Amino acid sequence: SGTRVSLDNVIARGHSRLALVVRATYGFFGTPSVERLVLVKWTTLVSYSALCLYSVLLHLDEELWVSGYVAAILLTNSYISRHYEFFQWLAHSSELFILFTRISMWGMLAWYFVFLPFTLLGGWFRRVVIIWGILFFLVSAFVLQLGWLAYYEFVLLALLFWDRKFIVWSDASRLDVL
Questions:
Q1: Where are the beta strands (DSSP E) in 67-111?
Q2: What are phi and psi for residue 81, nearest 5 degrees?
Q3: Which of 13, 146, 150, 6 minimizes the C-alpha distance to 82?
């Protein structure tokens, strides 16, 4: 709908300082268009990918991350985990728990590396990115105590991959926002 049915259009018609900022922004960048929104989406995708790469590269020289044990440590820590007592019990009573946390940590490290290429490849590759992202953000929101970070990242994931009907699964060339 561009500027016809939008909050910024209502603000721009006013006489406040915010209205001046909105009108100046339109004067500088032009009015919103599908092409500009796709460019913003692409920039967001590349920026988040760069953040993922930075995060994984930052931890590659840390033994706990590379070995995969950091996930078990986070889950059993009373400061970061909501259910730390349960995870402590699980860690002491099950070797499978430790193996699962190690495998999931290695998966997370891999996800950081493949986020952009898999998204662009589309098909099953994009599905892996989306499903792993949803699982990671769910754990971050309901198991770990990360504040609003998980919710912001979930909204970001939805904005990047949500289509008119459902999630954009297959076509690698489609990154539209309609």
A1: none
A2: -105, 135
A3: 146
Q: What would you report as the CA-atom Rg of the chain, rounded to the nearest whole angstrom?
A: 21
User: Is residue 154 over pLDDT 80?
Assistant: yes
CA distance 151 to 159: 12
CA separation for the pair 41, 170 (Å, rounded): 17
pLDDT at residue 2 tops 60? no
- Ramachandran bin of 122, using left for φ above 0, alpha for ψ from -120 to 50, beta for the remaining angles: left
**Exposure pattern of 99-130 as b/e (b: 16+ CB <10 Å)?**
eebbebbebbbebbebbbebbeebeeebebbb
The rounded distance, in Å, linking the Cα atoms of 60 and 53 is 11
CA 9 vs CA 40, 78, 144: distances in Å: 19, 48, 39
Indicate whether 125 pLDDT > 80: yes
What is the token pair recorded at 38?
């796709």
Better-scored residue on pLDDT, 32 or 100? 100
Q: Which helix (H) or strand (E) holds 36?
A: helix 34-59
Six token digits for residue 127: 């599905």
One-letter amino acid for residue 175 of the chain: L
Q: In angstroms, how far is the first alpha carbon of the chain from the final one?
A: 10
Looking at residue 159, what is its pLDDT? 84
| Residue 9: predicted pLDDT | 76
